[in-house]
Amino acid sequence: MKNLLILSLLFSFPIFALTPLERDEILLKGGGRIENGRYLINFSRPDLRNGFYLNLTGLREFFLSLNGEPIGKFPQKTRRTIDLSEKKGWLKDKNEIEVQSPEEGKTFSFSLFQSDYRWYFGTLHIHTTYSDGRRSVSQILNMVNDEGGNFCAITDHDTLGQCYDTAFHRTGNCQPIRGTEWTTDSGHANILGMEGRNSFIKRSVARMIDDATYRGGLVQINHPCDDELGIGWDHYPYLDPGIDAIEIFNGPTWSPEGEKSDAEAVAWWHQLLTEGKRITATGNSDYHGSRPYEDPLGSHSAVYASSDHPDTILRAVKFGRVMVCAEMGDSRLYLYADTNNNQIMDLIMGENILIPSGNKTIRFRLEVDDADTLDVVRVYARSGEIYSHTLPTGGDYEYEWETNYSNLDTNFVRVALFGSDGDYEYCTNPIYINYPEYEFGPCHFQTNPINLPETINVGADESIAFSLRNTGLVSPYRFGLLVAVETTNFLFSDWARQGPGIGEVRHNPNLNGYEILEWCGGYPYSVRLSPQNTFTYWLKIRAKQEGWQRVFYRSWADDRLFIIEKDPKTGFLGPDGEQWRFDSIFIRSAVTINQPVEGGKETFTLAPNPANDLIKISLLSSSRKPSLTIYDVRGNRVKTLIPEGKEIRYRAKELREGVYFLILKVGEREGRKKIIISH
After folding, report:
1. Using CA atoms, how far apart are residues 384 and 367, in angstroms rounded to an integer?
2. Domains in the chain and their CATH numbers?
3. Which residues cross the membrane (predicted)?
């Protein structure tokens, strides 16, 4: 680690628990003075976003109410951010926050701010009477809600029956998430958010991941290192492609009677991070209700998301915007980064910092809220532990530092909080530096034209076909193959409307000057593109205009929440903002004689090909004077050459890199060749 700058003191000092980020909006900012035991903050109803907060600095003890409704008492803080998001229903056109405090005459500052995001608390692993749990679906959701939880993935063993229980619905502030625990001798894994009623067949791990992806589910490995209990992950320490998260805190194994294998799970997760993998860590209660020390929100996950909708929570989990927690209502641990050097934090755990060139100094901040006496906070990077501090009296703690990275560095920063006994209490997911911006996952497509003609006549209909092959490891939830043409050059006269691989056909006759066809398949259509399988799609195009014209094509796949494949990933920027491949077809007028000039098929030769400078073009014998024209792939004429003899030497340096076509004309007849220019 380079240029470490310590900005904290050697003792803990109070902080606010939620730092406003640069993307958040300050609604009101000011200062006040406690007179007659209170101060009033007046404001108009804002156009509210998701998170709504009051930050108050300077009072050690105060009581808040909003429009006469009590919010709560907040002692022993000089700075505190209060989450008012769940109080937005109390707002009127004109509003009043009353601050009551015994600190008569004390001045303080405050700010009201809002954000598109907020922290949601819950578990992604819990059981009911639908498998080996002791509580009903209704009881579980009420218990999680009563403890302050916002979401609960009910993951009974090898069944989805609980997801169709009449009580499986929002309960208070708790939103249920569909899930099941795939339970085999190879280990246990949760499949979260998937569609369909049927349970997952107990096949290999690879087939489970394939089936989960096809049905739109995220895969989380549970208690991976619990070999002593016989429920560890057999493939450990290998990470199977397609795994989305690892449960590093598990309630029962974290308990006094458990094996405390969580530390080993954290070590494995850290090792995967050092190997360059972006994999989310989670914490979950795995509550069954059969032991006295169990708690529905013992180990749990705090997720930074834009709403508590199940899909939004799962997207945030996939991105790693997760604080892993050992218990509810205790400490909290936050990690931020300032990438703009303006003293305002703009990123949070799970996000990625890309440095395109040169060097960049990043400022990080960790915040500990309500730590216990003798808790220890540690900072880790790819090289290992880079900072450690013991909090002698507990409480709150803030630490900032700066690190300089280059565009060649691949690194991460994460933070953990340990109890005085050395056990983990909290972990952040990392902030990444120069990791892959997005991991497409183990789904790979090959998209190819099958019988694309080289030449067609104006006004003629020509059949062409494209193949879509899945060369990856999983079946996507949805997929599509698209073909496009410029409306000035072609039109689609017919296309395949049903058959293998076709769940839906979408036709857009004109998008920014392009006609587009898309064939869609996947789980919603009961059309599965399994690994190593291929679908073929046909259409007919009618040519409108002479010259070299292009046909564009691309494909995509998703796992319900994310795009997991695009083919191509780089290419021609199309009318929809996506990357496309293309091939060119030469369009003839209807009167063109489709014959070569004398000399047979080889009307002329050219070398070298590809070329970077001098091109030698040799003409075969001809009784009539020919002309040779160079076209680019858009059909634009670049150069016309009139040969004096049977050989032309042409300097290609004046051409940009790319594909060109040479057309030799002799009267009404012609010959053509393609050449690649690469300087």
Report:
1. 20
2. 25-115 (2.60.120.1200), 119-433 (3.20.20.140), 445-588 (2.60.40.1530), 604-677 (2.60.40.10)
3. none
